[in-house]
Amino acid sequence: METESAKIHLSVDCTVLGFDGERLEVLLIRRTGVEGGEEFHDMKLPGSVIVDGEELDDAARRVLTELTGLKNVPLTQFHAFGSPDRTKDPRDIHWLEATQQMHVGRTVTIGYMALVKIGRSIMGDMEGTEALWVPVDKLPPLAFDHNQIIAEAVKMLRTLASMDPSMLYALMPRKFTVTQLRNLYEVVFGARLDPANFYKKMVQMPYIVPLEEREKGVAHRAARYYRFDKNTYNKTRI
Amino acid sequence: METESAKIHLSVDCTVLGFDGERLEVLLIRRTGVEGGEEFHDMKLPGSVIVDGEELDDAARRVLTELTGLKNVPLTQFHAFGSPDRTKDPRDIHWLEATQQMHVGRTVTIGYMALVKIGRSIMGDMEGTEALWVPVDKLPPLAFDHNQIIAEAVKMLRTLASMDPSMLYALMPRKFTVTQLRNLYEVVFGARLDPANFYKKMVQMPYIVPLEEREKGVAHRAARYYRFDKNTYNKTRI
After folding, report:
1. Would you say residue B61 lies in a domain?
2. What is the ipTM of this complex?
3. Are residues A184 and A230 in the same domain?
């Protein structure tokens, strides 16, 4: 006897977050589907149904590389999304059925997240896929519950960064200005910060090291670059 | 066409951790199965296959209440366990098939964890189930990959508590001695702490409030009780 609970499919979805100096961005891939005889175009997270016998972590790594070309990204499992409502849109069901060649019942997805430097080159291995960075605060409606997954990933980033701010430097370029760092704090914590106070606090941190280099080719006064020193940071905490 | 990936079952498992003043304990339920015509007895985490149409969080709460009687426990999803190897023991497969009346292929379980005060009464709603506290460092081989799930939950507790030690007080009795608190730090962080140093640090924390009350009926010198003040703790952090 098979019970209803047997009709479950499992997928992984990767929320890769980057920061362009002003805004938090998420890596999405374009999707083309057909609904009611009409082609439609939208976007989704890089993700896929898992392959038979595949470990979850391996599936997440495989899918991200296949769809975006990114390798050696520190993907972390952060939440499973399994609401029965997440596959209620017929466009999503039909797209899954067409691409995966299977009937779709309930689909549970394991959400992975990663923080990367946005300068990394993005290029999918699979023909016809296109990956692109999209600002988190300007997302259109995405496939499935992917808007919700991204919102949860940003919430998780906020929670973790409030406990361990050093993780934010994974998002920063190797050299950054005070303004860029303040922008990141503002977008992650969702609050305006006083520039003068932020500067005063920041330069007191021994792990934020000033460089001799300054911005080039800017209209305003060229700002100094800084770098994050992980070793010094670790010594400031017990 | 159904692909292999369709044959997946989904369950939830709850790792409820408590602290008895000396050791970290986990709430398990007894399991009786039959293998090769012989009855066997072992233990497992409170868990179950999810019901059709049920939200994951609801499933975790339902299962914990049914099997242990615990209600209003702050369960948090912490990790999905989906290795193809986790259901390779025939005893587990046959037990699942007998109790769930279904064929068992790959089973992915969503792990939930909770920290509770160990004094709470434990009593399952379902006939024939028995829940009990077992020290985490004295676990026998458990059903499925439940030893691994518990190890991961303890690791998660350690990571989170190193960032936010206030969460540890969910495990402590409302009033506690310095020794009990030091014991908890030792078991969570897996390191011996010097009693004199620990005491000196602890009494400096404004959120650890001394009470007038002392231990009763102990052979050694009766130790003072303290309580954790969450409001004061929150004010010590920005």
Report:
1. yes
2. 0.81
3. yes
Residue in A closest to B4 by C-alpha = A52
Query: Which residue, of A140, A162, A184, is where some domain finishes?
Result: A162
B199 by Cβ neighbours in 10 Å (0-12 / 13-18 / 19+) ranks as middle
Q: What is the CATH number of the domain that holds A225?
A: 1.10.10.10
In a domain, B133, yes or no: yes
CA distance A120 to A113: 16
Q: State the pLDDT at residue A2.
A: 38
B194 and B153 fall within a common domain: no
Closest CA to B108 of B86, B147, B82, B89: B82
Task: Report which residue type is found at A49.
Answer: V
Asked if A19 and A129 sit in the same domain, the reply is yes
Name chain A contacts of B6, Cβ cutoff 8 Å.
7, 9, 102-103
CA distances from A140 to A21, A118, A135, A144, A230 (A): 21, 20, 10, 12, 36
Provide the domain count of chain A: 2
Digit-coded pLDDT (tens) for B155-196: 999 998 988 888 999 999 999 999 999 999 999 998 999 999
Residue B139, φ and ψ in degrees, nearest 5: -80, 130
Cα distance between the two ends of chain A: 56
Do residues B145 and B42 share a domain?
yes
CA distances A80 to A102, A142, B66, B160, Å, are 22, 18, 23, 19
Q: What is the average pLDDT across B222-238?
A: 84
User: Do A8 and B5 lie within an 8 Å CB cutoff?
Assistant: no
CA dihedral A33, A38, A39, A44 (to 10 degrees): -40
Distance from CA of B126 to the nearest CA of A (A): 21
Q: Domain containing A123: what range?
A: 4-162
3-class DSSP state of B57? helix
A117 lies in the same domain as A138 = yes
pLDDT at residue B5, rounded to an integer: 45
| CATH code for the domain of A96 | 3.90.79.10
**Strand B131-135 to strand B24-35: parallel, antiparallel, or no bridges (unpaired)?**
antiparallel
Q: Which of A162, A183, A203 is the last residue of a domain?
A: A162
Number of residues in chain A? 238
Q: CA distances (Å), B109 to each of A121, B145, B220, in order?
A: 35, 10, 46
Q: Identify whether the C-beta of residue B149 lies closer than 8 Å to the C-beta of residue B13.
A: yes
pLDDT of residue B125: 58
Whether residue A86 is found in the same domain as residue A149: yes
Contact at CB, B3 and A56, closer than 8 angstroms: no
Whether this model's pTM surpasses 0.90: no
